[in-house]
Design goal:
Length: 478
C-alpha cells in the first residue's frame, strides 16, 4: 500500500499545479476582458521572452528610454502578461509620478523588493519593508538626520576630502595622472559615512571588499528582481551562487559594525547606529545589520556618484566650470554651499544623471489615469522612471543639454519634475545630508583644481546609476 502513496501524491500535486495554472489564466483573462473596456497604456513591441531578457539586462535603462522615444507616450506597459504577474508599466510624466508617490494607498510591491533581501541574508530592511515594519524603522532613525547631526557629518566629510586631496589628488596632479572619479569618491564617502553614521572606522581592505562584493551581488539580485526564472534555477547559475557568497561577506560587515557599537564606552547620542541599537522594534542583530547595510549602500552611492557626475559634466563643459569657479571667489568659503551658481550646477548635473535613474516602484492602491487618458488599474506595478521624467522635452528645453542657467528662473513644471530623491512618505531619508555634502565637496575641489575629461567611460545601473571608468585629470589653479 505504501508503494502507492508516492505516485498518488505526485499525481495530486501535478493535478493541483495544472488546476492553479488554469485558474490563473482564467482570472487574468477575466481581468483583461474587464480592462479592455478601458484605455490601457500601449505595450512594448517585444515578445514576452524578449521583454524578460531586456529588463534583466545591464542596459535595461537605456532600452526603456528607447521604448519611450519610439512610442512617444508618457506611460507604457511591459509585455509580461503571464499568470500570476500583475500589469507592469513605466510612468514617464512627472504629474502622474507625483500623484502615485504621494498616494497613501500605494505601497512597495513585495514580490519585487523581496529579491533585494538576498543582499541581507533574507532579513527585511528599511528599503524593502512596508506599513508598520517600515514606519518603526523610519521614525526610529529620523532624529539622526537632524540639523545638528547633518552639520557633524558634513564636517567629517570635508575633513576626509581634505585628506584625500593631500594624500591622493596632489600626487596625481604632480605626476599628471588621471583618476577614476567614481571609485575615488566612493572611497571618500564610504569612509565618511562609516565614521559619522556608524562610529566605525572602515579599513581600506573593507572598502575594497564592499565595492567588489556589492557589484557582484547587486547585479545578480537586480536580475532576479525582474527575472523570476533566475530564482527557480539559481543553484545551476554560477553567478548566482557567487552572489550569495558576496552577500554573506557584505552582511558580515554590517554585523561587525553592530558588534563594534557595543564596544564603544560613550557612543555619540542620536547617530544612525545609536538610533538603530536603541530601537526596540528590532528583534535581533540580523535585522539591525540589514538596515546598516542598506543605509550604507544608499548613503555612499547617492552622494559619491552625484559628486562624480557633477565633476564629469563640468569636465565636459569648461566654460561652465570656469564660471562656477569665478562665482565661488565672490563668496566666503563658509558660505560656498549656499551659492546659487553652485546649486544650479549640481542640480543640472543631477537632472541629467539622477543616481536613482530607474525611479521608485509601487503597487497601485487605486486606478490612476495619465495625461493621455491611459488607465493604470489598481494592483498594477509601476516604475517612475526619473531619468526620463527629468529629461522630458515638454518640460525642459534642450533637455539633453547641460545648462545650469535654466535653474535661474525655473518654471513650476521644472521644479515639480525634479525628483531625484522621490517624494511622499517613502522618500530618501538622508537627502538633505547628501545635498550638503555634494555642494561642499564640489566647491572644495573646483575652487582649487581644474578638472578635464580624459576618458568618458560608460554609465551602468547597479541599484543606482553610476559612472564606470570615467577618468578625470586635475590641475591646480591659482
Amino acid at each position: 500500500m505504501n508503494r502507492e502513496v508516492g505516485p498518488i501524491l505526485y499525481k495530486d500535486v501535478v493535478t493541483a499545479v495544472i488546476a492553479l495554472f488554469l485558474i490563473g489564466i482564467f482570472i487574468q483573462r477575466k481581468k483583461l476582458a474587464s480592462n479592455t473596456k478601458r484605455k490601457l497604456p500601449p505595450l512594448t513591441k517585444t515578445t514576452k521572452w524578449e521583454t524578460i531578457k531586456l529588463i534583466a539586462a545591464s542596459d535595461a535603462l537605456w532600452w526603456i528610454v528607447s521604448v519611450w522615444k519610439e512610442l512617444k507616450c508618457s506611460v507604457f506597459r511591459f509585455n509580461l502578461l503571464l499568470p500570476g504577474i500583475p500589469m507592469m508599466a513605466i510612468v514617464c510624466e512627472y504629474e502622474l509620478a507625483r500623484e502615485i508617490l504621494i498616494d497613501p494607498s500605494t505601497s512597495k510591491p513585495r514580490f519585487i523588493y523581496q529579491s533585494f533581501e538576498y543582499l541581507t541574508g533574507g532579513e527585511e530592511s528599511l528599503f524593502t519593508s512596508n506599513a508598520v515594519a517600515w514606519h518603526q524603522r523610519r521614525v526610529g532613525m529620523t532624529s539622526a538626520f537632524s540639523a545638528k547631526h547633518i552639520k557633524r557629518m558634513h564636517t567629517v566629510a570635508l575633513r576626509m576630502i581634505d585628506e584625500w586631496i593631500e594624500t591622493t589628488l596632489r600626487p596625481m596632479v604632480r605626476n599628471g595622472e588621471a583618476f577614476d572619479v567614481g571609485k575615488e569618491m566612493i572611497r571618500v564617502i564610504l569612509g565618511a559615512i562609516s565614521e559619522t553614521a556608524f562610529e566605525y572606522t572602515i579599513s581600506e581592505e573593507e572598502k575594497d571588499m564592499f565595492a567588489k562584493e556589492f557589484s557582484l551581488c547587486s547585479n545578480e539580485f537586480i536580475n532576479n528582481a525582474s527575472n523570476p526564472w533566475r530564482k527557480l534555477y539559481g543553484l545551476l547559475i554560477p553567478e548566482r551562487r557567487r552572489a550569495f557568497i558576496s552577500a554573506a561577506r557584505i552582511m558580515n560587515l554590517g554585523l561587525n559594525i553592530v558588534a563594534h557599537y557595543r564596544t564603544i564606552e560613550n557612543p555619540i547620542e542620536g547617530t544612525v547606529i545609536d538610533c538603530i541599537m536603541k530601537n526596540s522594534f528590532y528583534k535581533n542583530d540580523g535585522e539591525r545589520a540589514a538596515d546598516v547595510i542598506f543605509l550604507l549602500i544608499a548613503g555612499h552611492d547617492t552622494t559619491a556618484y552625484s559628486i562624480s557626475f557633477t565633476l564629469k559634466e563640468l569636465s565636459k563643459n569648461q566654460r561652465e566650470q570656469d564660471k562656477l569657479r569665478e562665482s565661488l571667489k565672490l563668496v566666503e568659503k563658509e558660505k560656498w554651499s549656499h551659492s546659487d551658481a553652485l546649486r544650479n550646477v549640481v542640480k543640472e548635473a543631477i537632472r541629467l544623471n539622477p543616481v536613482t535613474a530607474t525611479g521608485s516602484c509601487r503597487c497601485l492602491g487605486k486606478d490612476f489615469t495619465s495625461r493621455e487618458g491611459y488607465v493604470l488599474p489598481k494592483g498594477s506595478i509601476i516604475f517612475t522612471n526619473f531619468l526620463i521624467t527629468m529629461r522630458d522635452p515638454t518640460v525642459f528645453e534642450d533637455a539633453d543639454t547641460f545648462n545650469p542657467s535654466r535653474w535661474e528662473n525655473p518654471s513650476e513644471a521644472m521644479k515639480k519634475a525634479f525628483l531625484p530623491f522621490a517624494i511622499g512618505k517613502q522618500n530618501c531619508l538622508g537627502q538633505n545630508l547628501a545635498m550638503v555634502q555634494v555642494h561642499s565637496i564640489v566647491a572644495k575641489l573646483l575652487s582649487s583644481f581644474q578638472v578635464e575629461l580624459v576618458e568618458e567611460g560608460v554609465e551602468q545601473v547597479q541599484l543606482t546609476l553610476r559612472p564606470i571608468k570615467t577618468m578625470l585629470r586635475a590641475k591646480a589653479v591659482e
